[in-house]
Request: fold
Amino acid sequence: MTLNQRSTAIDRPLRRDHVGNRLRRAAGQMTGVLAMYEDGRHPIEILDQLAAARAALDAVALLLLDQYTATCAERLANAQDAEVAIADLTATVRRYVHSR
Reply:
């Protein structure tokens, strides 16, 4: 499997825009967290915003995993490298879970 074949998991335009918007929103949240810290805001307020930013990033990760799962399922349905598709999906999920 080539890198181009793997990239099809994020090539659908509507999903790419949706993911991009969510990532920009999370980046904006982090900019806000930094401003709160620099302004000397109470740690509880900062921690609340950090939790919100993490939740936003987790939502993006789930969108990406959802889309990649669909791509792997398509490959399985078309009998294209079934073992490779399963291995790729498993490795992707494992990588994300271990990063937590």
